[in-house]
Specification:
The protein is α/β, with parallel strands linked by helices. The chain has five helices and twelve strands. About 20% of the residues lie in helices and about 30% in strands. Helix 4 packs across helix 5. The chain is globular.
Length: about 260
């Protein structure tokens, strides 16, 4: 017999397609859940006598009443094709307990946060940025400066979060750079060009996000995470200054060295 006690229902209230394989999904849980920016929720469906479940970083911040996710379709996957079948008003299961250690924490003497992402890996950073903006509105300032570097193959890989984060830069505590690695497929693109690993040091150095002043977070494609960590380690970042969240694991044969 299936044990569904850890789960609650979450109703889809909104979805936005950015491309065939990337969409924004907003769910309303049947009762409020608490979490920290950077954590993830486990979404699930029941099929036969099995619960199919996967973890997804939360885009929304804790003060928001709904849970937002930026999800990439895995065409032959077990769960995402079922999520793509959902219509507004439909429900799926969600583990009530939100978990994850990829969160921000105060570090004495270090006031900068370097937040590096590919594709849907931007999700935890949007949550962090929204939470800081809400704290500032309430008169609470942690004194930290955030720099978000977000990469994708094409502009649609960045979703609507490119515009959202760029608009928030006006307040001064946030800097944001988007980069695409296939500019030939984006004729109207006027931003940075190259893989995240190609432009990371350039923009980090430009904004003073060095080992003496910053903690680095890397989220998304595992190759970017490994390459980014190696680049930053050579720049003097210590292990304790490098936080990571990989969205899947590459076979050993596919892992490159930097």
């Amino acid at each position: 017999m299936l044990n569904l006690k850890p789960f609650i229902n979450a109703r889809l209230v909104e979805r936005t397609a950015f491309s065939h394989e990337r969409e924004r999904f907003v769910f309303e849980p049947e009762r409020p859940v608490g979490f920290k920016p950077g954590q993830y929720a486990t979404l699930a469906v029941v099929t036969g006598d099995e619960v199919i479940q996967r973890a997804y970083s939360i885009v929304s911040s804790p003060h928001e009443p709904t849970l937002e996710f930026f999800i990439e379709l895995v065409e032959h996957g077990e769960l995402t094709p079922r999520i793509w079948e959902l219509m507004v008003g439909d429900s799926l299961l969600m583990r009530e307990r939100i978990v994850g250690a990829f969160t921000l924490s105060p570090v004495p003497g270090i006031s900068k946060r370097l937040l590096v992402a590919t594709g849907t890996g931007i999700a935890p950073y949007v949550s962090m940025v929204r939470a800081k903006a809400e704290a500032l509105r309430n008169g609470i300032n942690d004194g930290c400066e955030y720099f978000v570097l977000h990469g994708g193959s094409r502009a649609p890989d960045l979703g609507s979060y490119r515009d959202e984060l760029a608009a928030m830069c006006a307040d001064g505590w946030l800097h944001y750079v988007a980069t695409v690695s296939r500019p030939g497929e984006n004729p109207d693109w006027t931003g940075e060009v190259g893989r995240v690993e190609d432009v990371l040091r350039k923009h980090a150095d430009m904004r003073g996000h060095d080992a003496a002043h910053s903690i680095a977070y890397l989220c998304g494609h595992p190759q970017m995470v490994e390459s980014g960590k190696a680049l930053l380690a050579r720049a003097g970042f210590q292990k304790a200054q490098l936080k990571e969240e990989k969205y899947f694991t590459l076979p050993a044969a596919d892992v490159e060295t930097v």
